[in-house]
Amino acid sequence: MSVSAVIPNWNRRDLLLALLEKLESQTVPIGEIIVVDNGSTDGSADEAERFGATVIRLTKNLGFCRAVNEGLARCRGEWIAVLNNDVEPAPDWLELLLGAVTPSHWFACGKLLNAQSRQILDGTFDLVARSACAWRAGHGCPDSSSWSRPREIWSAPFTAVLFRACLIDKVGQLDEDFESYLEDIDFGIRCQQVNCRGLFVPEALAWHAGSAT
After folding, report:
1. 74-131: pLDDT as tens digits
2. Which residue in 69, 63, 62 sits closest to 34, CA to CA?
3. Helix (H, G, I), strand (E, B) or coil at 92
4. Terminal-residue alpha carbon distance, the chain
5. Would you list the DSSP string of 130-163?
6. Would residue 69 be called left, alpha or beta, if left means φ above 0 and alpha means ψ between -120 and 50 degrees?
7. Given 10, 100, 153, 162, which residue has the most CB atoms within 10 angstroms?
């Protein structure tokens, strides 16, 4: 299975390079890495190119959604991973996600832990209440067995997510009106409307600095 990775980036060259190194060391090779740079001024784009990534340079910060969509349009892989530049995936993150999904699953996400307090959850999957309020399940809670059970889900955080490239044909790209927040909730609702389920894989770990960019 071929995999493309998309990283939206705005400055924080240090975080971006650390993530690129983590992706290079994945136990399943990534076919292409696309960095979409939102007009960084710290040399991020140049460093990403020297690393070997394909870089799409936007002239200014157009937001998370626009950057991701620009990357999605260039992907050639059967699967697409989208990661924030402040995420640190474990070496087997991708392997565990790919190994867990079945033909009935369209996307997958793992357990996100706080990069500063590594026993605290940054989040798992996303939920929407009947009141239409959205939240990230487990955010701020101590990691425990309660958050270590695989389960089918309707919505995954685009902080670190893997999905079939053909899912975009079914539900569309991210809605750029959201710019930088709640776009993943909207995407999940559209997945639910066409009965495209995902999978939460708790063994697939990543650490998230959170709002570091």
Report:
1. 999 999 999 999 999 999 999 999 999 999 999 999 999 999 998 999 999 999 888 8
2. 69
3. coil
4. 31
5. TTS-EEETTTTSBP-GGG---EEES---TTEEEE
6. alpha
7. 162
